[in-house]
């Protein structure tokens, strides 16, 4: 179903978790809501589920105003971050809970529990139905939680950081499965995560939130390629922030004002003294280190006081280089007010990139 | 000092400590056992002149048995009432949905904060006015003063240990608040319910001050009986009573150990 939220506001004490969120979640699509912790994404999800009542604004589901509806009347199913499986019930009873509430005859309950377990590929685990949640692995618990949610055939599926408690290998596999499951069932899905890579890979529609607001929404490819503001540019991908402006001939002038943002994969490193390529911005720099990340080599290049990341297929030796970025790949936010505090948050930005690095 | 010497010292110290513990704990118990079996024991003989089961047999008929069954009845009623009253209060307090929850919880420890005798004495005066003195309901009410403290605090801790998202998951799938309570919160808090039932039951069974003040002379439980017996220098009867009174305590405390989790106790007094 189509879900629309309008001007949602919610404060917890002095913290504004939602500061005016307006967005339409398209029917049948998987929308990933991504942002740093505290950006309001989980509050938004809990508003949709009916656990949090917004201070302001409305929630519409298929044109019906459900803002004041209790959680029971929302026709949505939520998968919790820690799964919230009931430890005193078997897997079967966990999945059957919602079906029995709907007073389905017991044979139908049984059929639909089996069907749900099959959808999450747990049907081949022998004796799974009579096991207790604590006897299952993290990945299996995750699937049971998913099965419990889809068994009631909700018209809206809400996922709150569903993969954050799984180790990397299982996470990648379950991510693909959730995607496939959503495609097969066509349930309108809202997927909340802090992991930009996860969000980019799984989403039909990507919504980037920060400070209780939606900063950008669109197809993942579009948002990645054309971030609307420095925050989005920095948050998605391995993004460099270099203070400075572009002078005549494409040379980068280090300056206090002005910032150039570009991604590590768009940086080319040429031998020092080579002629700068046409249509590129460039600057001399010094390679201080080069790490092998598996798929790519990542060189760390000192430019002035800034460390710039450059990804390439070949390892780079430490020493002087010419750093060049195609002009079209430089994300320009000059004259953008929001960008002014970005320099100050350079440290925070470095932090975020560190996380990105460890994830790739 | 050599290693062997040091370990010898350690063994000696440990043995001494063990003996001390045995003497301090088991010594009085042993003397209770000896006294309960002594049919004749005149000073200055170090051991009883005649041992026998006379007092144990006397215990099994008449007054002491009546005191025991009466005490168990009162403890059962107290436990049921305390749990029924405490369940909703504790649940709402644990979910922070109780108006002025902290104040209510404090109210439940307040009787423990004052010396008990004055509290019970003034209660007794009131009970006389309301014709509750010397009745089972009066004794139950006095036992509830302490019983509710155990019940409310243990249950609040037990409900707080049940993750709120477990209940949200049920609400989300369409369960009503009542059903969520009975299907999710209550079953998961059951160890805590059992623990609090045991605590309240034991409290009532062993309660003495209030029972004596409010119940005497018409309602006699085992502790009161033991007290009157030892006043009459019937040390054998008092010893038998003490041993019998210990039995449910030991059994239930062993059970309690299974149900009571550290977090329940750690919560005591926290708001």
Structure description:
The complex is a heterodimer of chains A (360) and B (271). By secondary structure, chain A is of the alpha+beta class. Chain A folds into two domains: 3-230, 3-Layer(aba) Sandwich (Rossmann fold); 235-359, Beta Barrel (OB fold (Dihydrolipoamide Acetyltransferase, E2P)). In chain A, 28% of the residues lie in helices and 32% in strands. Chain A is built from nine helices and 20 strands. By secondary structure, chain B is mainly alpha-helical. Chain B has two domains: 3-52, no CATH class; 55-266, MetI-like fold (Orthogonal Bundle). Helix content of chain B is 78%, strand content 2%. Chain B has a two-stranded antiparallel sheet. In chain B, helix 8 runs antiparallel to helix 11. In chain B, 37% of the residues are buried. Chain A binds chain B through residues 49-51, 70-72, 74, 76-78, 80, 82, 84-88, 97-98, 101-102, 148, 152, and chain B through 163, 165-166, 168-176, 179, 183-184, 187-188.
Order of helices and strands of chain B: HEEHHHHHHHHHHH
What is CATH's topology name of the largest domain in chain A? Rossmann fold
Order of helices and strands of chain A: EEEHEEEHHHEHEHEEHHEEEEEEEEEEH
Uncertain parts of chain A: 336-360
Average pLDDT rating of chain B: 83
**Outline of chain B, from the CA principal axes?**
globular
Computed Rg of chain A: 24 Å
What strand line-up does the widest sheet of chain A have?
6-7-8-3-9-10
